[in-house]
């Protein structure tokens, strides 16, 4: 196994009375794809938000290659896309480069166009989010995160807000990324995707990781009763 | 039917200097007051969301003070009482225009802060989250993402405020500012020609507000981010601001 690039060390997080993360430790090696599944409320999204530094854990550390992650070193893709509504597809992808990376408009534009082409949206650059389908919006969102050259990409249920016929185009982009060696952590219930792409699958429940195993083993012989029950429900 | 309406006199009033100047003064006063109120109101709106209790308390006090008292009383207070307790305002520089400007902008800021706050809150929290995930600072997110989207929401109620403000400038007639109402009162006093004098003032107000409505429509299109920009802009879901007698 390759060296760990992203590591979460006994993360704890509570919102008032509710303890959402109760000691989550796991790591992702360079080029690995980890898929997290689990019932709603199990802490999957909170875990991703802690990894992306969008939430400060109450205890525990997040380390990226041995240090605290820097700005946009961990890319995040949201369930509801969250594209900036007041910007075109192109401007959405450029803004991180111009405002955070301080690139010139021209350079930013070039790189942004390249990324939009990569996700198959070369002809939609001047459209506003409102004018794009959910699948197209999510692909723009992926391009927006990727253009920052993150070391790790996090996906928080990237296809669950999409109509069924639009899921494929987003999964295709993600599979392409995985093939190119991007390190990814994906919260998703697309089990077929998990089966094909994941290095390993993690089952979360009640704020802890119940089980982690490579897909073959995870699906054919889950070690835990909780995983078995959950898989029976999703499939 | 209208036995005693002198069209000629009406026309003369409409085109006379005092009316023109009065209208310009009213429009100018409303414009600078609104512009100032937007700036102060924006800061107040940010203050309302502050983590510091004291800041939130101060904003609450400000809004309470200016919304719970009649604008006319505030105007009279600023013009007559303020110079006696604060000698700076006793200087020659402090004309009725300045007094009206200070009063109206401070007063309007209280209302604008509520409108701007509602606008900022109406922006989907996911927008800020996405900005932070990209590594943008709070200030960048505000400037590039949240404020432009809030403007779209804030334009229609701000248009209302501008109209209210324009009409409120007539209050300044009591501190002898030569705005529209003063002009018409003076003309009316000369020949007791009330219908002609006051109708001319009404026409000015109607004209100004009509132009403003066209400008507002353009501004709304400017802040609509879709091809719908070129079509008619649908009215956004905005909480209706109750219009009170100020």
List segments of chain A where confidence is low: pLDDT < 50 over at least 5 consecutive residues.
none
State the distance separating the first and last CA atoms of chain A.
30 Å
Order of helices and strands of chain B: HHHHHHHHH
What is the helical fraction of chain B, as a range of percent? over 70%
What structural category arises from helix and sheet content of chain A?
Answer: alpha/beta
CATH topology of the largest domain in chain A: Rossmann fold
Structural class of chain B: mainly alpha
Tally the helices of chain A.
Answer: 8
H/E element string of chain A?
Answer: EEEHEEHHHEHEHEEHH
- Helix count of chain B, per DSSP? 9
Beta strands of chain B, count? 0
Shape of chain B: flat
CATH homologous superfamily name of chain B?
MetI-like
Rg for CA atoms of chain B: 21 Å
Give the helix proportion of chain A (percent range): 25-40%
Strand segment count of chain A:
9
Largest sheet of chain A: 6 strands, mixed
Q: Choose one word for the global shape of chain A.
A: globular
Name the assembly state.
heterodimer
Can you tell me the CATH topology of chain B?
MetI-like fold
What does this structure look like?
The complex is a heterodimer of chains A (235) and B (246). With 235 residues, chain A is of the alpha/beta class. Chain A has 2 domains: 12-73 and 151-235, 3-Layer(aba) Sandwich (Rossmann fold); 83-149, no CATH class. Chain A is built from 8 helices and 9 strands. Chain A has helices at 44-51, 89-100, 105-118, 134-146, 164-179, 191-197, 215-220, 225-234, and strands at residues 4-15, 18-29, 33-37, 59-64, 74-77, 152-156, 183-187, 200-205, 208-213. In chain A, the strands form 2 sheets. Chain A has a 6-stranded mixed β-sheet with strand order 5-6-7-3-8-9, with helices on both faces. In chain A, strands 2-1-4 form a 3-stranded antiparallel β-sheet, covered by helices on one side. In chain A, a hairpin with a 2-residue loop joins β1 (4-15) and β2 (18-29). The radius of gyration of chain A is 18 Å and the shape is globular. By secondary structure, chain B is mainly alpha-helical. Chain B has a single domain, classed as Orthogonal Bundle (MetI-like fold), CATH 1.10.3720.10. Chain B contains 9 helices and no strands. Chain B has helices at residues 7-15, 17-48, 53-67, 71-85, 96-122, 125-133, 138-168, 180-191, 194-222. In chain B, α4 (71-85) packs across α5, α5 (96-122) packs across α7 and α7 (138-168) runs antiparallel to α9 (194-222). The longest helix of chain B has 32 residues, at 17-48. Chain B starts with 6 loop residues before the first helix and ends in a 24-residue tail after the last helix. Residues 230-242 of chain B have low confidence and may be disordered. The interface between A and B is medium-sized, with 27 and 21 residues.
């Amino acid at each position: 196994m390759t060296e760990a690039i992203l590591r979460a060390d006994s993360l704890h997080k509570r919102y008032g009375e509710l303890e959402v993360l109760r000691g989550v430790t796991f790591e992702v090696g360079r080029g690995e794809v980890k898929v997290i599944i689990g019932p709603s409320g199990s802490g999957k999204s909170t875990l991703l938000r802690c990894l992306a530094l969008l939430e400060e854990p109450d205890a525990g550390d997040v380390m990226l290659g041995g240090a605290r992650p820097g700005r946009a070193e961990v890319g995040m893709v949201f369930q509801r896309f969250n594209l900036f509504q007041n910007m075109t597809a192109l401007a959405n992808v450029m803004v991180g480069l111009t405002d955070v990376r301080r690139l010139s408009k021209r350079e930013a534009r070039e790189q942004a166009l390249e990324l939009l082409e990569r996700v198959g949206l070369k002809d939609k650059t001047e459209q506003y989010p409102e004018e794009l389908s959910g699948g197209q919006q999510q692909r723009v969102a992926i391009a927006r995160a990727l253009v920052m050259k993150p070391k790790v990409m996090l996906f928080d249920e990237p296809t669950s807000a999409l109509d069924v016929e639009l899921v494929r185009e987003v999964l295709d982009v993600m599979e392409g990324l995985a093939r190119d060696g991007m390190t990814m952590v994906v919260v998703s219930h697309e089990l077929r995707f998990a089966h094909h792409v994941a290095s390993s699958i993690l089952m979360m429940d009640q704020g802890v990781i119940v089980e982690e195993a490579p897909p073959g083993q995870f699906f054919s012989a889950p070690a835990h009763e909780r995983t078995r029950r959950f898989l029976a429900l999703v499939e | 039917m209208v036995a005693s309406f002198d069209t000629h006199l009406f026309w003369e009033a409409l085109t006379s200097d005092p009316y023109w100047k009065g209208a310009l003064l009213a429009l100018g006063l409303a414009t600078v007051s609104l512009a100032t109120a937007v700036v102060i109101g924006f800061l107040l709106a940010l203050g309302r969301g502050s983590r510091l209790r004291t800041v939130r308390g101060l904003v609450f006090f400000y809004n309470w003070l200016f919304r719970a008292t009649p604008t006319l009383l505030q105007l009279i207070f600023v013009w007559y009482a303020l110079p006696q307790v604060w000698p700076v305002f006793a200087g020659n520089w402090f004309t009725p225009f300045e007094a009206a400007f200070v009063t109206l902008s401070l007063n309007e800021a209280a209302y604008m802060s509520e409108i701007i706050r509602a606008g900022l809150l109406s922006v989907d929290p996911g927008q800020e989250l996405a900005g932070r995930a990209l590594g943008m600072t709070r200030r960048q997110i505000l400037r590039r993402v949240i404020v432009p989207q809030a403007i779209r929401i804030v334009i229609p109620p701000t248009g209302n405020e501008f109209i209210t403000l324009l009409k409120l400038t007539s209050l300044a007639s009591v501190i002898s500012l030569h705005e529209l109402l003063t002009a018409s009162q003076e003309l009316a006093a000369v020949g007791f020609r009330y219908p002609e004098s006051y109708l001319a003032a009404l026409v000015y107000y109607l004209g100004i507000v009509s132009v403003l409505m066209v400008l507002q429509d353009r501004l709304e299109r400017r802040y609509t981010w879709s091809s719908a920009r070129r079509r008619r802009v649908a009215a956004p879901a905005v909480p209706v601001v109750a219009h009170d007698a100020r």
